[in-house]
Amino acid sequence: MSKTIDINIKVSVFDSVEELDKQLNNLCLKAEQVVDNAYAPYSQFYVGAAILLENSEIITGTNQENAAYPSGTCAERTAIFYASSKFPGVKIIAIAVAAKSKSAVFKITKPVTPCGACRQVIAEYEQKQNSPITLLMKGQDKTVYQCQSIRDLLPLMFNQ
Ligand code: THU
Fold first, then answer.
1. Atom of ligand 1 at shortest distance to CA of 72?
2. Ligand 1 in contact with 112 (CB < 6 A)?
3. In what side-by-side order are the strands of the sheet with 45-53?
4. Pair 12, 146: CB distance under 8 Å
5. 76 tagged catalytic
6. Which atom of ligand 1 lies closest to the CA of 97?
7. Distance 138 CA to ligand 1 centre (A)
8. pTM of the prediction?
9. Mind listing the pLDDT tens digit for each residue in 50-105?
């Protein structure tokens, strides 16, 4: 006989970045500041990510697309791989994601949440450092979503 388990996730919703504490507010602003550095000629979907490390460094990244579509990469992975390359072993405290659409027809109406591949990548770094990574997600309007751990966005993550 099978049984059903409930897996609940927690998301805090803020009306604006001003409601966050100073450090996280600043991280969201940094993610927004780099959005225009994205190379997104194919989707017109510009994404910025900012990572706060335990040593107080902030690492940013943006999505980088390519005519061979799967060769491109998301802002979150650009930033997290760079952070781990530059400061290997330094814990990640938080990741903020912001986005803006430059398409005439498509507007981003909700906070942008990391894609499945980015969730898996962030989850592995969280597991490696054995402490949770706060996630902040913002779109084009003022609303911000916050999760205390990537586990909230990737229950039943893949593990080897
Ligand atoms: N993208 C990101 O950079 N991060 C996300 O969280 C979602 C999607 C990028 C990938 C691609 O360059 C564009 O946004 C449209 O999918």
1. 12
2. yes
3. 12-14, 144-147, 134-138, 92-101, 45-53, 58-62
4. yes
5. yes
6. 6
7. 13
8. 0.96
9. 999 999 999 999 999 999 999 999 999 999 999 999 999 999 999 999 999 999 99
